[in-house]
Amino acid sequence: MTGLILEDAGKSVDRNLLLKQQENVVKALEEIWNGVESGDILVECLPLLRSARAVSCPEIGRKLRSPEIDHVKIIRDLRLLVNTFTNVIKPKCSSFTR
């Protein structure tokens, strides 16, 4: 998604494509959330997962829908989200489901 935002900054990518990618991120977050609720997925920091789901993703979506996209802020938010997942939330399959 960050690549699309960078491409949009230079060539004005179709806004619908950006919004579709954002929907895919939201769906992936919902799948992780449902996996955590069912016990299939473990995370290191549930409050940050909750925050990403309830605040970060909707905020990125709002920024993508605004008339003037601030590419720098959206890219920063996406990188923060990715780094948060990689280094703090760390979703992984539960050993109980194997």
Structure, described:
This protein is mainly alpha-helical. The protein has one domain. The chain has 4 helices and 2 strands. Strands 1-2 form a two-stranded antiparallel ribbon. Helix 1 packs antiparallel against helix 4 and helix 2 runs antiparallel to helix 3. The longest helix has 24 residues. It is elongated and about 45 Å long. The model has no long low-confidence stretch (mean pLDDT 84).
Throw out a few tags for this protein.
mainly alpha; 4% strand; 74% helix; 98 residues; 2 strands
Brief rundown of the structure:
The protein has helices spanning 2-11, 15-38, 46-65, 71-89; strands spanning 41-42, 92-93. It has 98 residues and is mainly alpha-helical.
> DSSP strand (E) fraction?
under 5%
How many strands appear in the DSSP assignment?
2
Number of domains: 1
> What is the arithmetic mean of pLDDT?
84
Q: Give the H and E element order.
A: HHEHHE
Describe the secondary-structure layout.
Elements: H1 2-11, H2 15-38, E1 41-42, H3 46-65, H4 71-89, E2 92-93
Antiparallel strand pairs: 1-2
Helix pairs in contact: 1-4, 2-3, 3-4
